[in-house]
Amino acid sequence: MNHLPLPRHPSDRPAGGPRRRVGLFLLLAALLLARPAGVAAGTLHVPTDYPTILDALIRAGQGDTVLVAPGEYKLYFGNLTIQNRKVTLKSSGGPAQTRIIGRPGRPVITFARGSRTVLQGFTITGTTDPEAISNNGGGIYCAPSSAPVIIGCVIRGNQAVFGGGIYCDLRSAPVIVNNEIRDNTALVSGGGIFSFRSSAAIVNNRLQGNRAGNSGGGISTYRDSSFITNCFLWRNRAGFGGGVSCERAATTLANNTVTANRAGSGGGILIQGGSVRLTNLILWQNRDRDLVTMGTGPMSRPNSSDLKDRRFRGVNGNITADPLFVDPAGGDFHLRPGSPCINTGSMDPFYNDVDGSRSDMGGYGGPAAGWNRPLSPWTLPGRMPGARRRD
User: Fold this and answer.
1) 30 φ, ψ to 5°?
2) Are 345 and 320 in contact (CB under 8 A)?
3) Less Cβ crowding at N or C end of the chain, within 10 Å?
4) Is the C-alpha dihedral spanning 19, 152, 184, 113 positive or negative?
5) Does residue 331 contact residue 304 with C-beta atoms inside 8 Å?
6) Spatial distance between the Cα atoms of 334 and 356, rounded to a whole number of angstroms
7) Is residue 38 assigned to a domain?
8) Contact 305, 320 (CB under 8 A)
9) Cα distances (Å, whole numbers) of residue 12 to 9, 251, 389
10) Is residue 254 within 8 Å of residue 351, measured between CB atoms?
11) d(CA 326, CA 123)
12) Which residue range(s) make up the domain with 81?
């Protein structure tokens, strides 16, 4: 194999170069969520005050919260489109008790152009129909120039051509944090998430059991500049890049655990072109091969990572050793005492753990790791005073 089939998207200028953006993304999220001085926030209850989520959203003003009681909310007349507002759509009972169920052929939730809504604490799931499949985004579609915050949700059982779980479109900047994205399907690319020239912040998510017919079982990025950190990609499948595929992208992957994913080529991560950065990763027991790169330069070589692939051992601080997960069969990827991945990540202080020590490799290391779930959108992970790690 020399080249991957490219997704059918319009040709645009190349994405910008990778930057260290954890703090920038979190600052942006805070600015987007800030309420203008002097504006009182209200809470609209569904179904006590308003019978449907859409009714409440139509009546909500800037800074308001739409609080949804536990139950199943079926969208009989299409999807839920959220317009350009800074509102919070939140469940009172969390995703285990509150489901939004969409119709086939379109995303369950669409964040319209310019939307800055916070979506928190729902299960987002669609109904499948082989004759009616959404093109972009089965569970959630982030329109161009939108900047929603998607936090503490379960996104599962959705299907699309691109982005079975979530599709991030051109110039969108979603913050996707502390979600479980599982069992979604993309006919082409991005079983869990597809990012098309977006600058998404994808932080502290678990992507499990997603599938793509072509590339990116867990995540697929195309000419984007997203920052993916502290994510766990487990048991995803694709033709190319079972865990992650990056094409012509400037994606940054830092402190992720990518394990037990499968593909015909690049079971863990596959990179074609671009300038992807790989730092503090654990790539372990993926089939075929943990990492495959094509048409890339030295910048896309892994740094301070643990890979079973021995080609990278001893280069850029990389190791080849069993990471000693607590219970890999059961999906617990904490590191046991004595793990070779503890305190052996990048020596750059930028990547230090929240306690100030040298970063661990994998999803539980680095400055954005170890936060209790679910998080409030007002306390997104980052270098904040008094941060405490999760045990």
Assistant:
1) -65, -40
2) no
3) C
4) negative
5) no
6) 19
7) no
8) no
9) 9, 16, 41
10) yes
11) 28
12) 70-373
Q: Which two structure tokens, joined as six digits, stand for 216?
A: 């990116």
Say which amino acid occupies 97: Q
Secondary structure of residue 278 in the 3-state scheme: strand
Evaluate whether residue 39 is within a structural domain.
no
Any idea which residue has 């009989």 for tokens?
Answer: 76
- Domains held by the chain: number: 1
DSSP for residue 57: H
Q: What is the pLDDT of residues 208-231, one digit of tens each?
A: 999 999 999 999 999 999 999 999
Which positions ≥6 away from 41 have C-beta within 8 Å? 35, 63, 64, 65
Contact 287/313 with Cβ under 8 angstroms? no
pTM: 0.86
What three-state secondary structure class fits 299? helix
Q: Tell me the residue type at 330.
A: G
Q: How many whole angstroms from its chain centre is CA 355?
A: 24
Amino acid at 210: N
* Neighbour tally for 391: CB within 10 Å: 6
Question: In this structure, is residue 29 part of a structural domain?
Answer: no
Written as six digits, the tokens of 118 are 């916070």
Dump pLDDT digits (tens) for 249-266: 999 999 999 999 999 999
Residue 383 has what pLDDT?
Answer: 30
Q: Are strands 325-327 and 332-335 parallel, antiparallel or unpaired?
A: antiparallel
Residue 390 lies in a domain: no
Cα(176)–Cα(209) distance, integer angstroms: 18
Tracing tokens 């985004």 back to the chain, one arrives at: 137
As a whole number of Å, the end-to-end CA separation of the chain is: 44
